[in-house]
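JOB MANIFEST
job_type = single_chain_structure
chain_count = 1
residues = 309
[input]
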Amino acid sequence: MSRVKIAVQGIFVADLAFRSHRMPAPGESVIGRSYGIGPGGKASNQAVAAARAGAEVALIARLGRDSFAEMARALFVREGVIDAHVGSDDEAPTGAAAITVDETTGENAIVVVPGASGRLSTGDIDAAAARIAASDIFMTQLETPPEISAYGLRLARTQGVRTIFNPAPAAEIAADLYALADFFTPNESEAAALAGHPVGSLAEAEAAAASFLSRGVGTAIITLGARGAVVRGPGFNGHVPPFDIGRAVDTTGAGDAYNGALAVAIAEGMPLERALRFAAAAGAVAVTTVGTAEAMPRRDAVERLLAGG
């Protein structure tokens, strides 16, 4: 079978990750145990995840002209991510993210500065129109301005390309943007912010998913971490249970692994329930490894977990 094609629009950032025995409270300093610098950014991570799952992947983004950009280009070469539409910006640096990881729980807190990728323009997306049109799935997030996300989704739709909209981090979005999402994939906190009510239980997640469908979303997939996912749409309605992988080491890239794998599974024509299990397995494998791009799982690891390994 020929490889499916995925186009991902968004950002690359360099992740500066700090690990400590617990998260600091506001105004508090704690002594950390380790730190590291590596590749990150939701779009870049999702592109790597999709490539490792077997797709031909093109990224639409911007970098500065600095050492972090060199890190990005090396990653794309190593992972086989097509970077023909990753531009170089002379006026802004490559983005960066500060990540604090609680070693006890694996939970994290993140501050993202998009840098050059935050200057992604409609012209950049137009230049990638042929690549988008040739794709099986187009995927974007909210680390670039919402109007840029909307522009990419709209262009993909006009070309008949199915879309995945991962509204992360949560931000106010125009009402007509929901209808551009064939698959809408917020996590618990993002769903709560967008729905306007808590998503602390499965029933509340179901209510949020129903509200997204009423706004025009094709299929709403609310990921709930260790509690699995709640899904509402024409292909599946129900709760997708999580995989038991023991203690999470680092949850930072789990959502990106999930979305990248979901894009590949849908593009390959898997029935939605099976595609959701494939994505859940990818997210579960990701939390067993420290880092973000480095934690994106390879397909054989995902399939081993699906098979009970």
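[summary]
Residues 5-12+41-94+115-306 form a domain with the UDP-N-acetylmuramoyl-L-alanine:D-glutamate ligase fold (CATH 3.40.1190.20).
The two ends are 25 Å apart (CA to CA).
exit_status = 0
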